[in-house]
Design goal:
single chain; 105 residues; alpha+beta; two-stranded antiparallel ribbon; 16% strand; elongated
Length: 105
């Protein structure tokens, strides 16, 4: 398995899929790609780039860029979901509660 930055695509109208390795992305290009966009110039370029990575001749960054471009052409590209809010530690979120206490005179 060759990992890469995830590419999010709509597999169906209600199913979002994150492709995070080259093998699953290449399989998606071959088996699950919308029929009306299969064989376009960008789709063929993404497939060729996947083959280059799988044979050790290409980079995952180039393949990911080709995959994103082809997915945008096919209108199945999805922006990555927003990260959940991260809770801050108390001393950062509410510093007045954890600071030094002043003595009253």
């Amino acid at each position: 398995m060759i990992p890469m930055q995830p590419v999010h695509v709509w597999e169906s109208a209600s199913t979002l899929r994150a492709l995070s390795d080259v093998e699953s992305a290449a399989r998606f290009l071959l088996e699950r790609w919308p029929a009306s966009y299969a064989g376009t110039k960008l789709h063929r370029a993404a497939r060729a780039s996947a083959l280059n990575v799988l044979t050790g001749k290409g980079s995952t960054a180039v393949f990911r860029a080709a995959m994103v471009t082809a997915a945008k052409e096919a209108d199945i590209y999805a922006d990555p979901p927003a990260e959940p809010e991260k809770l801050l530690p108390g001393h950062i979120a509410e510093p007045w509660r954890y600071g030094k206490k002043r003595r009253r005179r």
